[in-house]
Amino acid sequence: MPNPQPLVLAIANQKGGVGKTTTAINLAAGLAARDLPTLLIDLDPQGNASTGLGFDRAGSFIGTYELLLGDRPITDAISATSVRNLSLIAADTDLVGAEIELVEAEDRSHRLAKALSGLPKGRFRTVVIDCPPSLGLLNLNGLAAADAVLVPLQCEFFALEGISQLMRTIDRVKGGLNARLKLAGIVLTMYDRRNNLTELVADDARSFFGDKVYETTIPRNIRISESPSHGLPVLTYDPRSSGAIAYMQLVDELIRRENLAYVHRPDPSPSMEACR
Fold first, then answer.
1. CATH number for the domain formed by residue range(s) 7-275
2. 267 pLDDT exceeds 70?
3. What are the residue ranges spanned by the domains of the chain?
């Protein structure tokens, strides 16, 4: 299909500390490594997706705040990254006040969707949105702009209780703001096979959500934790680590599930050269 519309994927969970931003960064980097030009949008006022890619938020730039509340075209907000095929719209420091300002804004829940309509056709194959850990207007903008939502689920106590509220929000968004929105799936993060609780949470998730739970699981891995401090995806920081290999497996499973075309590389490790 010539110049296909990009798949817009929101990474969301209202609970913090579940690996949401880490998943957004490495999923975007992995899609880029599979020769799918990708745009990562940092919609979280904490800006961890931006700094996790080595972006200096102290400088002057047009970011997601200006995109939602200003009148600048989206192309003005796109920055290059050190990862080939991966671009970024960073979170500026003013984004922390956007929730309050959006309350009085016209068409407040569709600001991001409107901005995305200005993307040049064919420039990106995928758009990944790192949503904030909340259920406010920023999160609603991410869900209203997305085709699908991927939910990282931490393999710990109370994880499933928190996700039920997000599922209700997704249903409300689908019913009132974005009829095309679907649940792309649930990804089990911080997976530790030595821990009985991990297996219990995984079994509960699979029994409740069925095949919406991805086969790929993301392990607890020190390299995943270290990589943001170096401003790099783990796929670049240590491409042969268990965390990097798991994220590439997640990328390939997403590609299969969503029928995204890419250049096949049988060994995940060499493909990481595309991230350098």
1. 3.40.50.300
2. no
3. 7-275
Query: Mind giving me the DSSP string for 35-50?
Result: T--EEEEE--TT-HHH
What's the CA gap between 7 and 146, in Å, rounded? 8
Contact 272, 54 (CB under 8 A): no
**Token duo for residue 261:** 């075309």
Q: Write out the two tokens for 216.
A: 């790929």
Please say if the pLDDT value at position 58 is more than 90.
no
**Which pLDDT does position 3 carry in this prediction?**
55
Q: What string of DSSP letters covers 64-131?
A: HHHHHHS---GGGG-EE-SSTTEEEEPPPGGGGGHHHHHTTSTTTTSHHHHHHTTSPTTS-SEEEEE-
Is residue 233 predicted with pLDDT exceeding 50?
Answer: yes
Report the mean per-residue pLDDT for the chain: 89
- Residue 211 tokens read as 């095949």
Q: Is 207 exposed, middle or buried (0-12, 13-18, 19+ CB in 10 A)?
A: exposed
Residue 103 DSSP one-character state: T
Within 34-148, where are the H helices?
Answer: 48-51, 64-69, 98-102, 111-116, 137-145
Angle 196-209/159-176 helices, nearest 10 degrees?
A: 30
Q: Encoding tokens for residue 158? A: 């109370």
Q: How far is residue 266's CA from residue 87's CA, in Å, rounded to a whole number?
A: 25
